[in-house]
Amino acid sequence: MDICFENGERMQADIHLSLTEGAVRVLSMSDPMAKVRLGRQVAAAWRKGCLVDVGDHLPPDRPGRPDRPTLSSPRDVPKRKVSGRPGGRIALLHALAHIELNAIDLAWDMIARFAPLRLPRNFLDDWVGVADQESLHFTLLSDRLTVMGMSYGDLPAHDGLWEAARSTAHDILARLAIVPLVLEARGLDVAPAMIERLLAVGDAESAHVLKVIYRDEISHVAIGKRWFDDLIAARGGDPVKTWQGLVRRYFEGGVKPPFNIPAREAAGFSAAFYGPLGEEFLLRRRKG
Description:
mainly alpha, Ferritin, two-stranded antiparallel ribbon, globular
């Protein structure tokens, strides 16, 4: 049944669809572009009030994935050295597209997995918005790869990002601590240098895509930080000590400097949280 319109495009959806059912359908999609299209439809229907029920559908253990790319060890994934030759830039864009595909699923998983906690409506609003932006990011990267003569799936990728979802599936605080406040915050640290390298070799189009993603990711880190703080405050805990403890427990890679302090501060994420863990990372590296 037609339930909504978005940008003049008629959308098809079951009028009885709940938000969590929509999230589970998106997670179960194996075709990346079908996942993007359905996710954007569900997000638009939620924003417009055409979906009102949250529902109680639980997410799958793993999201749907296409046959390609081949999932390999990180050491077997092509190097992302940016130069005037296209190979390194294509590898970079492909790796980022893989990250964004995982980010789509991480956002919808956040909604479906933790909806039983009966969190406020604006929690759901925030993560629906994040999921929608991640879909846009994947589309921009996929389109850019197409212009460069490649497609998502043409290169191998690794499955490390979904490990973060698996290890934190039982605890919303752990999920918030690791996904937006470690993984996405790391993206803020590395994005400016990638953008500069792309501009230096004359690839302004790819640089523009990364600028869009960088801008949006600041808001995603801010959303994660705000909800982490709110949930800790409700439990009467210490946000800094709790975050550091969760990261030490659930993120083996450590929190790697250098940090993009201005971007992190723009997201409301102060160095009191990550600074000590950055020092721990450097100390471990010096000790070998």
